[in-house]
Amino acid sequence: MSSKPLVVLIHGMGVHTAPKPAANERGSFGKECIDTFNKAFQMYSSLKSHKIEDKVNFIEIHYDHIFDKIRKEMAENGQKISDLLQGAGAIANVPGLVTKVVQFEASLNDDDFFYTHWLDVILYKLYFGEFVRVHVAEKLGEIISKNSTQKIHILAHSLGTAVIHDTLSKLYNEGYADNDDIPDLSPITHKLSSLWQIANVSRLANSVLPVADPYKSLVKPGSQGVTETMMNIHHKLDPFTLPKSFSRTDNGKWVPSNVFKSKYLDIETSVITQLNTHSITQYLHDPAVHLYLFRALGIKVPPKAQRDKAIADYKNLVIDKAEEKLKKKLNTLVKTNAATLKDYVDAAKRLMQFIESM
């Protein structure tokens, strides 16, 4: 049994290729993460000769194939989401759901951009997320049971933050009992070492067909939660994190104050080195993020002089006037608890328009 920590990677929206373990091939998200970690190693003289794979085991949980199948079926049959819901059995009887979907689709004016880039996000939020949660739960349960002596960390990005929150909410149960027929995990005996929520959209996903409120679920740090430590990471100009953003305060209501101070970390980044502020590679390349990850994974953190140099070098990669132009594009988007799916899609469009304009 390996003594290296294990990091489970959960991808976000968009098209992602699946890993092929038999051929020793990473999926596209796993390759992005590992390559970026190794790129970060090159920023420190004490880590330059090392590879992240020598220090950490990575496992990807891939679910894009579920959405890919639905997307292809919809394209081949000329279907809309509301058409699929009409024949979805009991779910179609949720009061007002089909009407809500029809109105939402109409508001998009048959926007090709929506259907080609963010359809999987909407599919997850409206109904088909249950297929994803079941798939991820099976994979994660297997990983945890097979690696019971290892420290297990989860790194989720974008839509993956909603997927992992909702899946963990179903897997972990306060009433857990050994040897029963319920495939639950115990927040005591199966506690995760850390959970990294990067570009967290879990609250917005919970606004339609709720699974569990991220502010009230067991997905939190400390003795009462599913993980020892939890990190919420967001870029101040990542528009995806603005609608119903995840934001906790040290008031003792979510977790005790001592747990909040020692087991929870909120990281807001601001440097723009890629036009896509939502990119997982920009998040992981930033010393403000990866240095905390190194520490959590037991990787020896470089001395202060190296850290200071890396931070300065990273800031030198800033794209000229990108912040000014992106702020202008996002000027009417504000953090709000009243956000809708339409607000989310609008934020996505603005980011893409900014990228295209630059």
Helix-strand blueprint:
Blueprint: E1 6-10, H1 28-41, E2 57-61, H2 64-77, H3 81-86, H4 97-107, H5 112-117, H6 119-146, E3 152-157, H7 159-171, E4 192-198, H8 202-205, E5 227-235, H9 257-263, E6 264-269, H10 280-285, H11 287-296, H12 304-315, H13 322-329, H14 341-357
Parallel strand pairs: 1-2, 1-3, 3-4, 4-5, 5-6
Count of separate DSSP helical elements: 14
User: How would a crystallographer describe the biggest sheet?
Assistant: 6 strands, parallel
**Silhouette:** globular
Provide the number of structural domains.
1
Q: Describe it for me?
A:
By secondary structure, the protein is α/β, with parallel strands linked by helices. It has a single domain (6-357), classed as Alpha/Beta hydrolase fold, catalytic domain (Rossmann fold, 3-Layer(aba) Sandwich), CATH 3.40.50. Helices cover 44% and strands 11% of the residues. It contains 14 helices and 6 strands. It has helices at 28-41, 64-77, 81-86, 97-107, 112-117, 119-146, 159-171, 202-205, 257-263, 280-285, 287-296, 304-315, 322-329, 341-357, and strands at residues 6-10, 57-61, 152-157, 192-198, 227-235, 264-269. Strands 2-1-3-4-5-6 form a 6-stranded parallel beta sheet, with helices on both faces. β5, α9 and β6 form a beta-alpha-beta unit. α6 packs across α7 (159-171). The longest helix has 28 residues, at 119-146. The chain is globular. 40% of the residues are buried. Mean pLDDT is 85; it is low at 89-93.
